Amino acid sequence: MRITSRDNSLLHHARAVRDGKVKESIFVEGSRLCEEALSSGLKIEGVIYSEEIARKDRAAELIERLQTTGARTASVSEKLLESISFTKTPQGIIVLAERPAISEDEFKARQPVTPLLVLVHGINNPVNVGAIIRTAEAAGVTGIIATTNTSDPFSAKALRGAMGSAFRLSIWKGATYSEVLAWCLERGIRTISSDASASRDYTLVDWTGACALIVGPESTGLASNEIEQADETVRIPMKGAVESLNVAVATGILLYEAARQRTQK
């Protein structure tokens, strides 16, 4: 099907999904990320692609595979694609898919005896959330927990930052900070937060057991009472006049120390 009107119902729906107005669906843009969505087994609901990208062999093959899912599929001009894209330069193909669904109970059941978790609390930049999820998968994290006041891990920007990791990692979304800490305590999972004023360096902590790294808001970090609720607090030594690191960078440093220790265990 070829769409020529900006007011087409599929394009209207795509904009609503892009803007987070349709909670049951996610907005996936770009060939690589659309391939990840398809290979992850997500239910594909709609496919919109530019006439230009359809002329490229790899994209044409992907479009053909997407069409076999039975999803509503349409080609559009570059100008129409711009009207629904969330990037300044449209990526040629957009997929609307059913939001990955995992219940709290399913998340908990999937965790191994010694999980390595990341608790993302109060981070409102979706790009950082996506980068944390991508880094977490690379470091061997077994699950992500995003609290109620954290940017949606399945928003278009977060998905782009995660580059497919959000489709593969178990993600528990919508719990409160206190609920997560209570569950960790019940399961014997040590909670570890990061704070520049902590007395112990992150390399001096034992990351080999069941543990959950807590990372907080970009601008303020975790509140003092939230830090106090964690079992341990660590710091990343910094030189010069630098007072803090980007939260995704800091998370990567901590997780790779955990990965190093776990590999050598």
In short:
This protein is an alpha/beta fold and 265 residues long.
Report the portion of residues in β strands. 15-25%
Ends distance: 56 Å
Number of domain modules: 2
Q: What is the CATH H-level superfamily of the largest domain? A: SPOUT methyltransferase, trefoil knot domain
Described by the principal axes of the CA atoms, the overall outline is: elongated
Largest sheet: 7 strands, parallel
The low-pLDDT segments are none
Helicity, as a percent range = 25-40%
The CATH architecture assignment of the largest domain turns out to be 3-Layer(aba) Sandwich
The mean pLDDT is 95
Q: What would the CATH topology of the largest domain be?
A: Alpha/beta knot
**Tally of alpha and pi helices:** 11
Biggest sheet: strands side by side, in what order? 7-6-5-10-8-11-9
CATH class of the largest domain: Alpha Beta
How many strand units? 11
